[in-house]
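Renewal narrative, Specific Aim 1. Our central claim is that a sequence can be written position by position from structural information alone. The example that follows is taken directly from our test logs and has not been curated for this report. It begins with the structure tokens describing the chain, in the order in which they were read.
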């Protein structure tokens, strides 16, 4: 695996660097090593997939996801070049990709929201971006054919989120199995698969730049919508500040409304249940969030399980429950 000492020789060997440069370790979440390299001529990021994710529970994932990410980055950058980094190099033998580095003024959207900097216009912009991606790929047989292999989606999303919750909630098994069938069998467009605040950077103008495409696959677009909305639901439940709750709900609402306004693909009636299940997995799944205290966890569990047992619950009703 690459580190601060080996990355510069590696880049020279790949023909991507001449001379010296500074190396900075960036956060790679739980799945990757991420290193930033800078000198007067270049500013790039090198990302290498780990064979085992850094989670409390054992979570092994195929390193081929780096190749999937590179291919998806090319597609998404072509559709929305201002919202996706440029891919510079992909090394399939070392499961490593090199991309352009974002401006240093960018901030992580997840951290922004947790620290009370909540800008609903980010939701609007993200709804537009996601709709453009889904619309374009849905019309391209070539794009869809290139991402039909979905074992990584099973490893990184279906198993740790959906199946893990089903394993500890027998009364929800039928509902969850229906939701699993929906996201694994209905293949409409290219799905990002990790459309999460931690993978979204915000510019000074509160415009989003999206990262981390390693779970991209041809599948059901409801998953991308639900994955982002589930994170916003968790953050709404977390805060006790009424103004922050209202801003987060406005962000979620503007995201969904802009998507519906722009997308040519109807939003699935099951959206609220997918949101509830993914949010519940952040407490009972393999990768729980670290920012919910015990009372917040209890509220989240109560809200989401009620939604999963009520197929008629809407997105609006689900988020209104978080205002308690």
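The sequence written for that structure reads:
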């Amino acid at each position: 695996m690459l580190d601060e000492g080996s990355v510069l020789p590696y880049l020279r060997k790949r023909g991507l660097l001449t001379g010296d440069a500074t190396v900075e370790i960036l956060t790679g979440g739980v799945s990757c090593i991420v290193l930033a390299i800078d000198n007067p001529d270049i500013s790039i990021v090198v990302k290498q997939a780990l064979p085992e994710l850094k989670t409390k529970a054992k979570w092994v994932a195929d390193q081929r996801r780096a190749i999937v990410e590179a291919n998806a980055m090319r597609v998404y950058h072509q559709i929305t070049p201002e919202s996706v980094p440029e891919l510079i190099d992909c090394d399939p033998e070392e499961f490593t990709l090199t991309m352009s580095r974002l401006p240093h003024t960018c901030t992580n959207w997840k951290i922004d929201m947790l620290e009370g900097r909540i800008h609903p216009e980010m939701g609007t912009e993200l709804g537009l971006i996601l709709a453009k991606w889904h619309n374009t790929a849905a019309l391209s047989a070539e794009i869809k054919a290139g991402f039909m292999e979905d074992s990584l989606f099973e490893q990184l999303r279906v198993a740790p989120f959906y199946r893990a919750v089903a394993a500890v909630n027998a009364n929800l098994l039928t509902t969850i199995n229906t939701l699993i069938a929906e996201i694994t069998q209905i293949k409409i467009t290219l799905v990002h698969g990790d459309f999460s605040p931690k993978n979204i950077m915000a510019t000074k103008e509160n415009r989003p730049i999206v990262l981390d495409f390693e779970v991209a696959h041809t599948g059901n677009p409801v998953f991308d919508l639900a994955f982002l909305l589930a994170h916003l639901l968790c953050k709404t439940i977390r805060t006790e500040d009424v103004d922050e709750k209202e801003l987060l709900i406005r962000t979620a609402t503007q995201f969904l409304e802009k998507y519906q306004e722009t997308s040519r693909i109807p939003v699935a009636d099951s959206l609220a249940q997918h949101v509830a299940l993914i949010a519940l997995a952040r407490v009972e799944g393999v990768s729980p969030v670290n920012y919910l205290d015990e009372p917040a966890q209890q509220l989240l569990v109560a809200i989401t399980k009620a939604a999963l047992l009520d197929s008629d619950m809407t997105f609006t009703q689900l988020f209104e429950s978080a205002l308690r």
